[in-house]
Amino acid sequence: MDMACKLTERMKSWIEGAGCHICLATPDGVPRCIVARYCRCVSDEIVALALAEDEFAAIEPVFSKNPWISMGASGLGSIRAAYQFKGTGRVVEGAEFDAVAGEATDALGEKPARVIYVDLKELYCTKPGHVAGQRLDGLTFEDLCKFEVDLGWKDMCPSE
Amino acid sequence: MVKLTDEMKEALHVPGKGGSVTYLCTSSLDGKPNIAAMRYTEHWGDDKVLIADMFLLKTKMNLKENPECVIAIAHPLAGGGGRYWAFKGKAIDIEYGIDPDFDWYGVKAREILDEWGDWHGKQPPEEVPPDIVYTKAAQRGVVVLHVEEIYSLKPGEVGKKIQ
């Protein structure tokens, strides 16, 4: 089955409102973590990360060898939006960079050094309890939305 | 040799005891990363971080094939100037049934499980809002990270080695 990873409006709200902790790994499995303070969902399947110079420098040695990125919402999102998003990243330039860099400059306090588009491929629930670790990208979008409602997840991200 | 500071130790408690939510980062041996937020966090001595194994799945699979691990805290509103650290090292899941004398970089399995083997009972999630609180889970063990390096996650100095 060709599974698609499509973000719900609630997921987008938390990703954009709270930013994300992101984890990468070397090809032989040494993880590295930074915080992507500015994230924007540029489509239902792509999250843009705008990174300052030091943030990108911290991951570049790993990212250049292995594009896999795993993400979870930061701040309150860690408990109220317990998802894990996984995909492969690519540095974008030109119009794609410009489309994100403007708003990101206000948020970061400086022009981002790089913008990475993460093409989402896997989606998991990480809420403690019986749903912990459940893979969600195999659900239809309607079932995914129902899953959120069944868990009682209705709140969108407040401004943090 | 790494030595956790008092400020770091203060952060490495459950949120209801003044700590911050942590992010547990692991990877499969072929480089697929995994990240999940954790409530049950504590420090042990000067160079170890503990996480409860209650709901771990992929993390557990990763640690069984690859001990490389990072535990991250990025909490801008805490501790005056914020908390921004990534603790990197090797971790193991000390599960029930393991030899009590098993030693992980100077700590015995028995010591860890005796003190933190019933984490939910010891530190129930009283601060977790009622609409998202979870039922008591069977704890299967404790993840013990032996910290070898500490990096900053503070904006402007991300990736800077602190220790």
Helix/strand layout:
The complex is a heterodimer of chains A (160) and B (163).
Chain A: H1 9-18, E1 20-25, E2 31-36, E3 38-41, E4 46-51, H2 53-63, E5 68-73, H3 77-80, E6 83-92, H4 94-108, E7 114-125, H5 141-150
Antiparallel strand pairs in A: 1-2, 1-5, 3-4, 4-7, 5-6, 6-7
Chain B: H1 6-11, E1 22-27, E2 33-38, E3 41-44, E4 48-53, H2 58-65, E5 68-75, E6 83-95, E7 103-104, E8 107-108, H3 109-116, H4 119-122, E9 141-152
Antiparallel strand pairs in B: 1-2, 1-5, 3-4, 4-9, 5-6, 6-9, 7-8
- Order of adjacent strands in the largest pleated sheet of chain A: 2-1-5-6-7-4-3
Query: Biggest β-sheet of chain A: count, sense, barrel?
Result: 7 strands, antiparallel
What is the CATH domain class of chain A? Mainly Beta
Low-confidence stretches of chain A: none
- Say which CATH homologous superfamily of chain B is assigned: Electron Transport, Fmn-binding Protein, Chain A
Share in β-strands of chain A: 25-35%
Q: What CATH first level of chain B would be assigned?
A: Mainly Beta
Q: How many structural domains in the coordinates of chain A? A: 1
Radius of gyration of chain A over alpha carbons? 15 Å
Helix/strand order of chain B, N-terminal first? HEEEEHEEEEHHE
> How many separate domains make up the residues of chain B?
1
Strand content of chain B: 35-45%
Please tally the helical runs of chain B, counting DSSP H or I stretches of 4 or more residues: 4
Number of helical elements of chain A: 5
Distance between the termini of chain B: 8 Å
Order of helices and strands of chain A: HEEEEHEHEHEH
CATH topology of chain B: Pnp Oxidase, Chain A
Shape by Cα distribution of chain A:
globular
Number of DSSP E strands of chain A: 7
The CATH topology of chain A is what? Pnp Oxidase, Chain A
Which bin fits the share of residues in helices of chain B?
10-25%
